[in-house]
Please model this.
Amino acid sequence: MYSSKIKGLGKYVPENIVTNKDLSEIMDTSDEWIQERTGIKERRHIKKGDGNSCAKMGVKAAKIAIERAEIDKDDIDLIVFATLSPDYYFPGSGVIVQDVLGIETCPAIDVRNQCSGFIYAISVADQFIKTGMYKNVLVIGSENHSGGLDMTTRGRNVSVIFGDGAGAAVLSRSEDDSKILSTHLHSQGQYSKELSLIGPSTQHWVPEIIAENPQENIPYYPYMDGQLVFKHAVVRFSEVINEGLDANDLKKEDINLLIPHQANLRISQFIQKKFQLSDDRVYNNIQRYGNTTAASIPIALTEAWEEGKVKKGDVIVLAAFGSGFTWGSCILKW
Ligand code: UT7
Model:
C-alpha cells in the first residue's frame, strides 16, 4: 500500500475586506458583539464584477499549490472539490476548475460536506493514492458565501460569521516518511436541518417558496441553530481528534500544530484548553477571514506553512465539525 503526502499548498482570498463596522452600517449588529462571540474582526467578500466565483477562486489557490508542488497541471490525475456554495446547482465546480486550469480531461469529484468538506476531500484523495490508482490529486476547498447570505438584521446570526475564499493542496504519492497518517469521518443526519439551506432544491422549489411568502426563516437563506451547533461542535471536535490520536498511538503532547476548522474563536480556544496546547501549537486566522467553511482549513494550513510554522517531521492535526452534522479529523506527519 502506498502513502500520500501534501506536496504543495495555496490560498486565495478576494481583495474586498468587509469589517464588522461595515456590517453594522447595513444591519443591527456591532463590532463588540461579533468580536466577543466569534473573534472575527473582518472577512473577505467577492465584489460583483471582480471576476471571482467559487470555482475561479479555487483555480487561483490551485495554481499556487501546483507550482509549489513542482508538478505540471497535466500531472494531476484527479480533482476533488469541496464546497457548499458551488457556481451552479449542477454541474459541480470541479469540472470548471479542470477546464479553467486547461487540463484537457481528468476525473473531478465534488464533495458536499460543508465545514468538514476539506477533511472529507483529503480522505477521498488519500484513498485513491493509497491504492495506487492515482499519483497526484488536487484537493480544493472554496466558498462564495457572500453571494447567498441574508445581509439584513433578520440574517445577522449567520451572515456576520461567513466569508469568501479558497485553499488548495496537491496530494502526491509519498516517497519519504512524511504522510497522511489517518483520516476519520462521521455524520449524523438527525441534525441535518440545524445548519442548512433548504431551498431552492428538489424538495423545495422556487414556486413553493414564493407561494409560502414567508416573512421569517426564508428557506433560500442559510439557517443555523447556533447554540445547538456550538454544543455539538465542542464535543465532536474533541472526540474525533482523540480518535485520530489513538489510532496512531499518539498523545496530545505529540501534536506540533492543531489547525481546527475556523468556525468560532471560542470553539478553537475550548479545544486548545481541552488538549492543553500552548498558543504556538494552535493556528487561528478566523479574526481576518471569518468562517470560510470548506476553505478554512486549507487557507489556515497554507498560512501556517508560509509563516514557517509547519516543519519537516511535525505531527499536524486537522479537525472540523459542521452542517450535516458532519465531522472529521486528519492526522499527518509533515
Ligand atoms: O462552521 C460551521 C459550524 N458553525 C458553528 O460552529 C457555529 C456555532 N455557533 C456559534 O458560533 C454561536 O452560536 C454564534 C456566534 C452563531 C452565536 O453566538 P451565541 O452566543 O450563541 O448567541 P445567540 O445566538 O444565543 O444570540 C444571543 C443574542 C440574541 O439576542 P437576545 O435573544 O439575547 O436578545 C440574538 O438575537 O444575540 C443576538 N444576535 C446578535 N446581536 C448582534 C444574534 N446575532 C447577532 C449579531 N449582532 N450578529
